[in-house]
């Protein structure tokens, strides 16, 4: 395995690291892999997951490029001030162009986390060179869902803090029983940040469940699935949705695509994997290893040397 620092783009302002397998293990038919920044994190990814993943995929024979979008990590800001939503997809294509020129790659897998997943989806939809996309914790783009995610996390955090943590804390019980506790603050947190937010969250979910029964909403869901996923699926590209347990993003996708999501999964056009006992950033080392294993298995099943380079309809468990 070899790792090389590169600079690319029209102004050579983008910085990345190519992780390549040993020459003897390189397969010219294998697509190259591009890892796209997770939000504002630089190319190592959350908890250095991209480093682990790049090296694991290289051991399987894939050439992997992880790089920083303009203004992140070591990449310089753009001189033309192009908005991030426009520059990131453009730079992802420039990364593919570099791999095509210097490594002879003609096909590509895009892998991204959170915002990187959104850009991977966008580029995969528009660029036929992309033969596979793995979207990790894809979410966002809707103010209502962003607010729902906020109150859900506030409620969960306070429930843990005032629930299991407080119940077994001698110090907190002593303060509560001795009159030294801030009873007003406790009451506000319990009534608003836990109970009320739970009610709001339940109501938000229920409204989407009820709305999904209406034919007009179902038609919107089908149109949305065709708009975002249709071009990828129709050309036979592999598509993986990978989410941590309790992901708001997955709830949002299920609400926005409705029965179309399950239909695509049942037809083998789309794969969905949920990693249990994991948070958004896959903080636990065991979950990081599981994430890498899932992505390795998916890439190997569809594009590895033993797959005859044919797209498989089998699911990744």
Q: Tell me, briefly, the overall form.
A: globular
Question: How large is the count of helical segments?
Answer: 10
| Count of strand segments | 8
CATH architecture of the largest domain: 3-Layer(aba) Sandwich
Strand content: 15-25%
What is the CATH domain class of the largest domain? Alpha Beta
Structure write-up:
This protein starts with a strand and ends in a 14-residue tail after the last helix. Strand 1 and strand 2 (14-20) form a beta hairpin. Strands 1-2-4-3-5-6-7-8 form an 8-stranded mixed β-sheet, sandwiched between helices. The protein has 10 helices and 8 strands. With 317 residues, the chain is an alpha/beta fold.
SSE layout and pairing:
Layout: E1 2-8, E2 14-20, E3 32-36, H1 49-59, E4 64-67, H2 84-103, E5 108-113, H3 115-126, E6 130-136, H4 143-167, H5 170-178, H6 183-211, H7 215-234, E7 238-244, H8 248-257, H9 259-266, E8 271-275, H10 285-303
Parallel strand pairs: 3-4, 3-5, 5-6, 6-7, 7-8
Antiparallel strand pairs: 1-2, 2-4
């Amino acid at each position: 395995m070899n790792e090389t620092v590169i600079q690319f783009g029209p102004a050579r302002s983008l910085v990345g690291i190519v992780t390549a397998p040993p020459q003897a293990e390189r397969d010219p038919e294998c697509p190259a892999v591009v890892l796209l920044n997770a939000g504002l994190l630089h190319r190592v990814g959350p908890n250095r997951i991209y480093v682990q993943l790049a090296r694991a995929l290289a051991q399987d024979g894939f050439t992997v490029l992880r790089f920083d979008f303009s203004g992140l990590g070591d990449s310089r800001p753009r001189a033309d001030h192009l908005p991030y939503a426009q520059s990131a997809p453009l730079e992802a294509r420039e990364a593919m162009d570099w791999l095509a020129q210097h490594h002879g790659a003609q096909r590509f897998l895009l892998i991204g986390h959170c915002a990187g997943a959104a850009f991977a989806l966008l580029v995969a939809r528009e660029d036929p060179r992309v033969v596979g996309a793995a979207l990790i914790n894809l979410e966002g783009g809707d103010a209502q869902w962003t607010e729902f995610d906020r109150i859900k996390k506030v409620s969960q955090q306070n429930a843990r803090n005032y629930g299991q943590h407080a119940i077994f804390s001698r110090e907190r019980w002593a303060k509560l029983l001795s009159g030294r506790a801030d009873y007003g603050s406790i009451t506000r947190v319990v009534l608003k940040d836990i109970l009320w937010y739970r009610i709001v969250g339940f109501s938000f979910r229920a409204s989407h469940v009820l709305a999904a029964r209406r034919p007009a909403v179902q038609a919107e869901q089908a149109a949305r699935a065709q708009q975002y996923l249709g071009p990828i699926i129709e050309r036979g590209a592999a598509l993986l949705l990978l989410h941590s347990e309790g992901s708001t993003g997955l709830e949002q996708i299920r609400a926005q695509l409705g029965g179309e999501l399950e239909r695509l999964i049942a037809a083998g056009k789309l794969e969905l994997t949920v990693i249990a006992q994991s948070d958004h950033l896959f903080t636990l080392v065991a979950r990081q290893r599981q994430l890498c294993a899932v992505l390795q298995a998916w890439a190997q099943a569809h594009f590895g040397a033993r797959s005859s380079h044919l797209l498989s309809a089998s699911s990744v468990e």
